[in-house]
């Protein structure tokens, strides 16, 4: 069979109309971006008479997936026939051993007027090509499916293109897991890291230990709200679920059909409370345990006893039988050593095996488990903590605490999968908007995911070879249902797919966004729930014209987006003014704005009130800078007309650790005022305390200040958020406000901790 050569097909490119407007090389909604793409004239049409032609069993299986896809989404049933030669009016899917397909998942896709020829290797090549083809179909249920004529030659950058899902904190049923695998396949992911056990639930049936799922899969309630909140509230709903061995087999073969390997994770020695609840003898203490209802890290962990290793051997034997992939993930993260330290048995094991400390005891634990895995023909992978106690060279390390663990592992010759929190934790917020659903914390917008590179620049060429790829993790403490899993995954998963698949030399965020916005039509068509944070509008305040009032800039992270706005509180419509330059005003003003693409609103409505007082937009100086964790916007954010939103994480609050707020405002000219306002936060469970006193000073020259008013601690504590200090009739150009930080507080262990003072706005009225 002959695939037409690239150059021979380099004909004059005529734009052809399609559902996306006009086909152009740079607007075909392909994510991840293929290595080479040439758009040609004409279209090929898939209709009920189109055949699927295949040459091998793998091609037949891949084409089978494609045909099911067409049936499900377009109601088209195409017949599959075998042939060694391409046919006309057909989509020809041919696996090939040609050396040009040696690359990872390598394929070529040639769409001609009268046929499609897809060739690729058996290890995901043709399957990946079919995903490309799927993305070229119209995202609408039409009878005739037009595809632009083109030639694509493509292969993957990394062999490990992973998505993880935590099914312990919240459980997702078999059908939902299948949907997750479908979502992954569409973006050429090939590894599903299935986090099956944790403190809050054991989710895989093990024949020899029925209590793991009878007891360990169920908890008697779940924490309400965020873990960091002061009052721990729980619901009393029995929560749980698990996958039977048959479910697992069904899911494994469903994944295999999509060329996705499943890496099951059985957490040990930490994050094991659910197992201990089922079989308390797995712990060192002799206590009994409950499946956890809350989040975090628990001190009760597996005891490294012979009986525990016997259990682990049995469990891993069954797990190895259920999962054909080479890897089993054994966790290894966040294992507190408290119980081991107080256990005579652990001391004995340490003495017998000449282990210096409990970290080495975990190293011993990992080594024992690895021997078990090798017995069952499997390889060990674990979180980067497994490095701390020494590790055999065959073990693979998953680097989550930044790149550091991964780099150390690669330098020691271990294979590494990069999944650093700051680029790959899809349980973090993707937007600062206050209407985002509750998340664990952090901030990981789409653009940051796109910037990720799994290969740290510090590694040399031979060390870099150990980086197998990367993965995003979806921990589900705050993700109660599958719709929200998708919301957290999309579209960040698209950005990561491009990082893991495409050649980094062609990285271009704006171009990615153009292709992604085409993809969003797909999300709607396929019923994928996704975040529109891309279209969120952010505002930045500047001093107003002639130093009066404010000048407000609106922006989005979406290149080329059109923002419409109103100043009368009404929702923007298509003919509302288009934002083009900063909006100036001298009276308190509300701005309502929205991104509109075509004639349709695309994102969330932005609504913000900018309050103007004598201090707004003025020059300020801070005697102590805010802590670098909470310093966004600097001192000016205290006079930018905007009060901080709640939750406060990631928003514009300034945080002072142990320091006072000490701000001097130059009002520009002498001005009359009667009161001072300090907008502060009270959140004692996060060690954020109200100030213990406020002092106000004025100055005739900006240098010498005299106190004009003071509010003592008990008066301050009477307020809830906005603290008002009456000052009588004053006139001054310079005003200094000092809000005293409480300094320290005692924690539950009686030790002293530094206290935060959080302020978002001050006013002079
Ligand atoms: C840390 S990442 C964990 C998980 C949590 C996650 C929340 C890792 C190896 N352990 O147990 O769910 O943070 O972001």
Task: Describe this protein's structure.
- By secondary structure, this protein is α/β, with parallel strands linked by helices.
- It folds into four domains: 24-154, Chitobiase, domain 2 (2-Layer Sandwich); 160-525, TIM Barrel, CATH 3.20.20; 536-609; 619-764, Jelly Rolls, CATH 2.60.120.1190.
- Helix content is 23%, strand content 28%.
- The chain is built from 18 helices and 39 strands.
- Strands 10-11-18-19-20-21-22-23 form an eight-stranded parallel barrel, surrounded by five helices. It has a seven-stranded mixed sheet with strand order 3-9-7-8-6-4-5, covered by helices on one side.
- A hairpin with a 2-residue loop joins β12 and β13 (201-202).
- α3 (174-186) runs parallel beside α5 (245-257).
- The chain is globular, with a radius of gyration of 30 Å.
- Residues 1-17 have low confidence and may be disordered.
- It binds ligand TNX.
- Ligand TNX is lined by residues 333-334, 383, 400, 425, 427, 440, 475, 477.
- Ligand TNX binds next to loops.
Radius of gyration: 30 Å
Question: What small molecules does this complex bind?
Answer: ligand TNX
- Low-confidence segments, given as residue ranges, are 1-17
Strand order of the largest sheet: 10-11-18-19-20-21-22-23
What's the N-to-C terminus distance? Answer: 82 Å
């Amino acid at each position: 069979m002959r695939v037409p050569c690239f150059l021979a097909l380099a004909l004059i490119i005529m734009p052809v109309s399609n559902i996306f407007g006009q086909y152009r090389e740079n607007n075909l909604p392909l994510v991840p971006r293929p290595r080479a793409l040439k758009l040609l004239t004409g279209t090929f049409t898939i209709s009920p008479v189109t055949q699927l032609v295949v040459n091998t069993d793998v091609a037949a299986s891949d084409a089978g997936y494609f045909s099911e896809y067409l049936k499900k989404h377009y109601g088209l049933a195409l017949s599959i026939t075998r042939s060694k030669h391409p046919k006309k009016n057909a989509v020809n899917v041919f696996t090939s051993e040609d050396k040009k397909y040696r690359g990872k998942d390598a394929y070529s896709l040639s769409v001609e007027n009268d046929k499609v020829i897809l060739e690729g290797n058996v290890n995901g090549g043709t399957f990946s090509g079919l995903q490309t083809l799927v993305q070229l179909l119209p995202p609408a249920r039409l009878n005739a499916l037009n595809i632009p004529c083109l030639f694509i030659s493509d292969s993957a950058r990394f062999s490990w293109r992973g998505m993880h899902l935590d099914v312990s904190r919240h459980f997702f049923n078999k059908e939902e897991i299948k949907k997750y695998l479908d979502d992954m396949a569409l973006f050429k992911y090939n590894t599903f890291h299935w986090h099956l056990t944790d403190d809050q639930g054991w989710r895989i049936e093990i024949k020899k230990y029925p209590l793991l799922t009878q007891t360990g899969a169920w908890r008697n309630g779940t924490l309400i709200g965020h873990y960091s909140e002061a009052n721990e509230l729980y619901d009393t709903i029995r929560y749980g679920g698990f996958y039977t061995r048959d479910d697992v087999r069904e899911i494994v073969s469903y994944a295999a059909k999509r060329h996705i390997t499943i890496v099951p994770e059985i957490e040990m020695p930490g994050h094991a409370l659910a197992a201990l609840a089922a079989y308390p003898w797995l712990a060192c203490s002799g206590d009994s345990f409950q499946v956890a209802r809350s989040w975090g890290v628990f001190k009760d962990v597996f005891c490294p006893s012979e009986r525990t290793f016997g259990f682990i051997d049995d469990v891993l034997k069954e797990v190895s039988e259920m999962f054909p992939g080479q890897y089993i993930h054994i966790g290894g993260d966040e294992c507190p050593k408290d119980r081991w330290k107080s256990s005579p048995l652990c001391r004995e094991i340490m003495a017998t095996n000449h282990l210096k400390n409990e970290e080495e005891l975990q190293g011993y634990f990992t080594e024992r488990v690895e021997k078990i895995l090798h017995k069952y023909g499997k390889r060990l992978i674990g979180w980067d903590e497994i490095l701390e106690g020494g590790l055999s060279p065959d073990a693979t390390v998953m680097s989550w605490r930044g790149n550091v663990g991964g780099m150390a592992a690669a330098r020691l010759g271990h294979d590494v999968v990069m999944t650093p929190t700051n680029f790959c934790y899809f349980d973090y917020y993707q937007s600062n908007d206050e209407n985002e659903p509750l998340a664990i914390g952090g901030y990981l917008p789409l653009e940051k995911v796109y910037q990720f590179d799994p290969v740290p620049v510090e590694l040399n060429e031979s060390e870099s070879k150990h980086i197998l790829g990367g993965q995003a993790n979806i921990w589900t403490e705050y993700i109660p249902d599958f719709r929200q899993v998708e919301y957290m995954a999309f579209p960040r998963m698209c950005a990561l797919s491009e990082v893991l698949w495409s050649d980094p030399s062609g990285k271009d965020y704006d171009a990615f966004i153009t292709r992604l916005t085409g993809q969003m039509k797909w999300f709607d068509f396929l019923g994928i729930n996704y975040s529109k944070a891309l279209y969120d509008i952010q505002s930045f305040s500047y001093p107003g014209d002639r130093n009066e009032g404010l000048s407000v800039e609106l922006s989005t992270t979406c290149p080329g987006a059109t923002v419409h706005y109103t100043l009368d509180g009404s929702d923007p419509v298509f003919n509302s003014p288009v934002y083009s330059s900063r909006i100036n005003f001298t009276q308190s003003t509300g701005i309502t704005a929205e991104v509109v693409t075509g004639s349709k609103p695309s994102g969330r409505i932005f609504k913000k009130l900018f309050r103007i007082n004598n201090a707004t937009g003025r020059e300020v100086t801070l005697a102590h800078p805010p802590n670098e964790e909470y310093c966004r916007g600097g001192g000016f954010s205290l006079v930018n007309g905007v009060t901080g939103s709640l939750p406060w994480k990631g928003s514009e609050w300034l945080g002072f650790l142990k320091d006072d707020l000490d701000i001097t405002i130059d009002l520009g000219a002498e001005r009359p005022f009667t009161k001072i306002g300090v907008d502060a936060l009270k959140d004692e469970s996060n060690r954020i305390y109200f100030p213990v006193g406020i002092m106000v000073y004025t100055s005739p020259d900006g240098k010498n200040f005299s106190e004009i008013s003071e509010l003592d601690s008990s008066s301050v504590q009477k307020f809830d958020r906005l603290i008002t200090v009456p000052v009588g009739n004053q006139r001054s150009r310079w005003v200094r406000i000092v809000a005293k930080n409480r300094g320290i507080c005692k924690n539950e262990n009686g030790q002293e901790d530094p206290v935060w003072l959080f302020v978002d706005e001050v006013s002079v009225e």
